[in-house]
Amino acid sequence: MRALVLEGHGGQDKLRFRSDWPEPEPGPGEVVIRVGACSLNYHDVFTRRGMPGIKVPIPVVPGLDLAGEVEALGAGVEGWSPGDRVLVDPIWPERGLMGEMLDGGLAEKARCSAGQLVPIPEGVSFAQAASLPVAYGTAHRMMFENG
Predict the structure, then answer these.
(1) Which run of H or of E encompasses 118?
(2) Could you tell me the pTM of the whole model?
(3) In this structure, are residues 127 and 39 in contact, taking their beta carbons and an 8 Å threshold?
């Protein structure tokens, strides 16, 4: 599978396009998403540069915010079907943040918990949906919670 892989902390030279990255397989309660769009935000830069006190497993596929289509379902997943258009909440409570502690959306496919999925309404593009989780959440909190 093709992916942009972070192979060490530092500058942009630490990112490599790879065509041999392993394809994700869904475990119980998990899904595989065929990525339609992945937006970038400053957290992706922090992950690349390295963050004090946070040990990011290297190599890792960056990209917190992604949207796409459900491709495969793990055992026990209900309420979702292959072809469903979804946005992925980047926080996987049991495992960490996608694009930081787990492979993220800068790849052809990504694996996540079924509990992270949010349906994309008709008329909303993958690019529009992928811009929501971190960037929109930050702006919303600043405007409505912090004044």
Answers:
(1) strand 117-119
(2) 0.91
(3) yes
Element (H, E) at 114: none
- CATH at residue 42: 3.90.180.10
Long-range contacts of 119-127 (CB under 8 A, 24+ apart): 119/84, 119/85, 119/86, 119/87, 120/67, 120/85, 120/86, 120/87, 125/37, 126/36, 126/37, 126/67, 126/68, 126/85, 127/36, 127/37, 127/39, 127/67
What is the total count of domains within the chain? 1
Q: Which two tokens stand for residue 96?
A: 């960490």
Range of the structural domain that residue 42 is part of: 3-144
pLDDT digits (tens, 9 = 90+) for 103-137: 999 999 999 999 999 999 999 999 999 999 887 77
For all residues of the chain together, what is the average pLDDT?
94
